[in-house]
Amino acid sequence: MKKPVTQEILFEYFAGRATLLQKNMIEKWLQDSENEEAFYECLDKWEMTYPQYVPDLEQAHTKYRSFVLENQATHSLSKSVSGQDTTKTKNFFWGWISVAASILLIVSVMFWTMKDVFFYQTYQTAYGETRTLILPDHSQIVLNAHSTLRIPRDFLDNTQREVWLEGEAFFSIRKNAKAKKFIVHTGNLNVEVLGTKFNVSDRRGSTRVVLKEGKVKVSAFASKQVSSVYMRPGDLVAFSPKDTVLKRMNVKPELYTAWQENKLVFDSIPLSEVLQTVEDYYGIKIILQDTSFNQQYYTGTLPNNDLEVILNSLSSIYGLHVTRTENQIILQ
Fold this sequence. Notes:
The protein is α+β, with helices and mostly antiparallel strands. Helices cover 36% and strands 31% of the residues.
């Protein structure tokens, strides 16, 4: 009779105390996608019971800088009171201490400023450009136009796989043999998965996640309270700073992932949002002078590799005249 994977066994696994037999049990158990939600629920309970210590490097650096400056100030004050140090040796010693402290402070500031270069590999796309990335774990990410992805240089050595996204990307995540979570961090949300396919858009202060395959857990941080939902294929979850809870609805994922095929697909979307999507991709301001058109809804497919075709299509449908300047497009 097959022994069940219990919460106690999972807790031992999270704590790093699981036996080889238990690890094999969990790996086989996770091959069934139906068990992923239970895995995450147990992981949440374990993390709340045994919070992990994460050093605050910025706070430590601030304290150290204050310590150095206070010691320099104390030394200067004692010198002014006594008039002079008792010996030349003391002068020499404190002089070298001040120089060493100054050098260390400069190095610390430089390191803090350049820490992203040391610790992360950064990938960026320009306006109108997409890029496909293969991660060290063989997961694939397609980065949309005007987007940035940061990946830790020790990606595979960490207890969990993490990346940081600004912009939009489609993720196809490989399951990890050690059941390491894959987490996408944005300005508003954390998206946690084991192995799945999903799209994340983090633009204009709002974040949107669309799940194509598998399961993901999405967590939002609003007013220091954590709001979380488990997504299933076809779910869209959105969040912006003005929201207090995550918004969820059922959609057609292909409408939100067609940009990978150089297409923009819209299903009864306000014209204003259509133009915002074009702005985000091409990086040019589009002004719709007649605001009544903002109430118009558009359904159809536009090619996403030719701005002229997009503008001609929209102007033909709505009877608009296109005027182009160096920095913007006016529709009137």
